Structure formats: structure tokens, C-alpha cells
Amino acid sequence: MVMKWCVVLLTGLLSFTAFAAELNVDADDLWLRQSIPGQSNGAGFGIITNNGSQDVLLIGGTIAIAEDVEIHRHVREGEQMRMEAMDALTIPAGQSLELQPGGYHLMLMALSEPLAVGDQHELTLVFSDGATLKVKIPVKELVQRQESSHHRNH
């Protein structure tokens, strides 16, 4: 009986590995923006690359510190910008898509704790075919500081 369960478990793990390998998606330089005081939601950015031969649809994600992870985009209406939730985000075959402030991004809804600089969280991206991709994602400063060279003496 134990041997039967081992075979069933091993078969399941092998089929999951094959399924995950078919996804062929990478997530690079993903990061979460530190929480804005008084805000209950957070945002995530980075680059998702589809190395496969077919388009994939990112439909959201999961993370332990938020009730949900949604895909959002900024939309201009006249002179105003607003965010809107999306059902899915297409990542074209053989291409990369950047999630960035003012564009497509991940929204972490109803955070259970603030996102603090230096913390790291495990995020699971979820695709329309049920495939998932787990990534470790750091929290970075709200405004990325850039080193300035104009203070040097010449």
C-alpha cells in the first residue's frame, strides 16, 4: 500500500514538473513598493518574460500578506489618470512585458501588514491555464534613489 502511494505521489510530482516546464516564463527584477502610510493596498513591478512559443495570460497571483493579487493598469480619462483592474494580461510569445509605475502593475489588495523596505515575500503568479510561478520578491523604497555625480569636484 505504501509503495502504491509513493508511485502515485511520484507520478503526480513528475506531471506537475512537466506542466510547470511548459509554462516557460521568467520573472526578473520583481519588487514591491514600500507601503504608503494609510494605504491598505500595495503594488508590484518588474519584468515578465514569455520564453515559450504561445502567448500566456497572467490572471493574478497570491501572496500571504494580502487578500488578493490583481492586475491593474493606469488609464487616462481626459486630464485624469485612474487605475482599473484587468481580468488578464497577455504576455506575447517570445517577448517581455514590464510592470511599472504608471503602467501595468500588480495590486496587492487588503494588506495584512505594511510592506517594509528590506522585507522579502513569496509571490505566486497565476496564469489562465492554471500554471503558477513562485518568486521571492523584495520590498524597495517608494522612490528609488539615484546616485548623483553632480556633487563631484572637477
From TrEMBL:
<dbReference type="InterPro" id="IPR058248">
    <property type="entry name" value="Lxx211020-like"/>
</dbReference>
<dbReference type="InterPro" id="IPR007410">
    <property type="entry name" value="LpqE-like"/>
</dbReference>
<dbReference type="Pfam" id="PF04314">
    <property type="entry name" value="PCuAC"/>
</dbReference>
<dbReference type="InterPro" id="IPR036182">
    <property type="entry name" value="PCuAC_sf"/>
</dbReference>
<protein>
    <submittedName>
        <fullName>Copper chaperone PCu(A)C</fullName>
    </submittedName>
</protein>
<feature type="signal peptide">
    <location>
        <begin position="1"/>
        <end position="20"/>
    </location>
</feature>
<keyword id="KW-0732">Signal</keyword>
